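Quick start: what a row looks like.
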Amino acid sequence: MTEGRQKSLIKNHAIAERFDASASPVLWAGDCLELLAQVPDDTLQLVITSPPYNLGKEYEKRLNLEQYLTQQEQVIRESVRTLTPSGSICWQVGNYVDNGAIIPLDTILYPVFARLGLKMRNRIIWHFEHGLHCKNRFSGRYETIIWFTKSDNYVFNLDPVRVPQKYPGKKHFKGDKIGQYSGNPLGKNPGDLWVIPNVKSNHVEKTQHPCQFPIAIARDRIRQEMAGTCRAAGTDRN
């Protein structure tokens, strides 16, 4: 997309003009840079994406690593521009493989976010059980979700995504709280290791998409981001 075309789209904000806030959900199909350019500054509360890993799949053109990073930085810059000051961005990536050597994409994309002033809040490990087996190394069974915020005044709602306690009936056995439940009655913090099946051929969510994203990953982030109005700042987050 040319610079002139991008400026024209930003000026017109075509998506903003046609957006229907009462509709649920709203889907737009097209080139991500062209669509992002139509979104006004400081508009989106949450951006979640799983970009191509530059592996030469049927839906992507394999680039050298420098070209890939340049391409990703364009998308990241536009995504950050559209975020509200309290907004979050989640970039879900795996590994780039070059002549048998693995390069974790999150480690080389982190500096891009840091240069734009974003702060990482979590590096979430997404673990899954199924996939192709490797012959010359251990089979890969995880990818990462790097979560950044635009400021320290970000939204973090833990209660909607809590998971059951390991010992839900456990109580304090001494001290001032003796006899009281020791865990949160709504459940515990799910932590930064998420075990979610990947979407393969027999998965209930499977469509024709060649590399499909599990609904659970996006669903939990949306619940955590959008439920209520709790904000986190510094050490106040729990």
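That is the whole record. Strands lie at 44-49, 83-93, 95-98, 101-104, 119-127, 142-149, 154-155, 193-195, 231-232. The chain has two domains: 1-40, 43-236.
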